[in-house]
Write a sequence for this structure.
């Protein structure tokens, strides 16, 4: 079976050019650094479009699949515009993400609003902007959303998010489908929720069920287990309450390859598993094919992104490790500190160098845990060298902070030898732009 883009560590356009430097999207990374400085996030448009096509191809045999992008992985205006042009809808989890996709010109009927504690303001904004589906998470939200919709004279279209009781083998912090989870209705609470929607909550219209099992998943069979549970439940609810529920949202979660030992399945494998299971349950329950929403985040954007850093100081611990520090770290990529995540890096300007040494890549932030890569074999590094860390498109910029009062990096999108700035580097004035010194302190 052919590979899909999430099975590569590096963007598909990565190569060594005539100057011996790494290039991506036809852009020499040394030139990018000269122009845009470091740390710098780089997104390769060809890789991003490549994975979109992989997903579309993987599901073309089941026309009732709706592809959505989980924008929590990376939500910027340009990325939203590009994915919307690719025909994707958006899974959003905050007013900020909803506003970003709205301003990028996304068709709001293809947007879903998810989350376990959506605020009054966020729900109100989502109702006003015409968000297409609300994945309602709990009883509190049902009441609040109904009240907001009623006050605006609207009926809003919802799914119920459930915890299907499926555990996947990933980092405990990114598991979500197991029973003891903060997300969604327990299976035993579904009927009560449905009865409220059919009775009291006249401004909510139920279309189906939603579940999400976890993230960075390498197992394929759990998607089949999830479909079995979701379809069984909608069939049961349709019979019990004479409904026509015909939508299931199976979440995201497909993994990517950060390092050689990661072996994620391809979109095509996942597609076959999902479609075969759908055909099986359609026959078993004798139902019309349900509409199936998929909302991957990481597998769409991760491989397309790299981060460029400049090497600064280094320290050889006597009889111990050699630390080489770069000009970024846990504020632009908190994943190693949070999840012990591993990454591959290469030196942009010394790709062909023979001499190597084992080093630890340290960040520049004031915390011992700020280590980007624990041990990696690289050409001997000198101050000023450029390091490229691969597979940083997902959950890097979206989880970035201003820890140590450091400006967030810029982001460029590369394609066909040109590079467009899509997020400006923060300035020192940006950092203090929301600060206020009360008058009484000025006296
Ligand atoms: N749908 C729902 C309801 C989700 O909660 C998530 C991710 C997704 C879709 C997208 O999952 P993906 O395809 O990206 O795996 N910060 C963590 C990942 C947290 C994922 C949270 N939910 C990390 O850096 O690994």
């Amino acid at each position: 079976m052919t590979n899909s883009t999430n099975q590569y560590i590096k963007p598909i356009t990565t190569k060594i050019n005539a100057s011996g430097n790494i290039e991506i999207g036809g852009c020499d990374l040394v030139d990018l650094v000269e122009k845009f400085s470091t740390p710098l996030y780089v997104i390769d448009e060809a890789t991003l479009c490549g994975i979109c096509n992989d997903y579309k191809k993987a599901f073309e045999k089941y026309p009732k699949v709706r592809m959505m992008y989980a924008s929590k992985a990376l939500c910027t205006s340009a990325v939203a515009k590009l994915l919307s042009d690719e025909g994707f809808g958006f899974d959003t989890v905050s007013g900020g993400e909803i506003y970003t996709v709205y301003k990028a010109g996304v068709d709001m009927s293809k947007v879903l609003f998810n989350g376990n504690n959506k605020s009054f303001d966020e729900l109100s904004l989502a109702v006003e902007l015409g968000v297409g589906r609300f994945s309602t998470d709990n009883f509190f939200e049902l009441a609040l959303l109904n009240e907001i919709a009623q006050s605006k004279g609207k009926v809003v279209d919802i799914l119920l998010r459930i915890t299907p009781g499926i555990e996947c083998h990933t980092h405990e912090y990114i598991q979500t489908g197991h029973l003891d989870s903060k997300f969604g209705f327990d299976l035993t609470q579904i009927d009560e929720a449905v009865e409220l929607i059919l009775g009291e909550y006249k401004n909510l219209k139920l279309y189906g069920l939603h579940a999400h099992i976890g993230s960075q998943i390498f197992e394929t069979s759990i998607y089949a287990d999830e479909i079995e549970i979701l379809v069984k439940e909608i069939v049961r609810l349709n019979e019990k309450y004479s409904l026509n529920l015909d939508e299931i949202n199976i979440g995201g979660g497909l993994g990517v390859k950060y390092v050689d030992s990661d072996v994620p399945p391809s979109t095509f494998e996942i597609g076959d598993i999902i479609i075969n299971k759908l055909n099986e349950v359609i026959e078993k329950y004798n139902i019309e094919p349900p509409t199936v929403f998929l909302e991957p985040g990481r597998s769409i954007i991760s491989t397309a992104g790299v981060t460029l850093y400049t090497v600064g100081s280094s320290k050889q611990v006597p009889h111990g490790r050699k630390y080489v520090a770069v000009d970024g770290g846990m504020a632009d990529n908190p994943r190693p500190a949070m999840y012990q995540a591993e990454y591959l890096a290469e030196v942009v300007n010394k790709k062909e160098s023979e001499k190597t040494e084992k080093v630890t890549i340290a960040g520049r932030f004031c915390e011992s845990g700020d280590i980007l890569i624990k041990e990696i074999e690289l050409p001997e590094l000198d101050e000023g060298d450029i390091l490229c860390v691969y597979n940083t498109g997902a959950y890097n910029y979206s989880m970035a902070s201003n820890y140590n009062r450091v400006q967030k990096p810029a982001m460029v999108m590369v394609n066909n030898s040109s590079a467009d700035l899509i997020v400006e580097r923060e300035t020192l004035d940006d950092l203090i732009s929301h600060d206020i010194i009360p008058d009484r302190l000025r006296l």
The chain has a mean pLDDT of 96. The first strand starts at residue 15 and ends at 16.
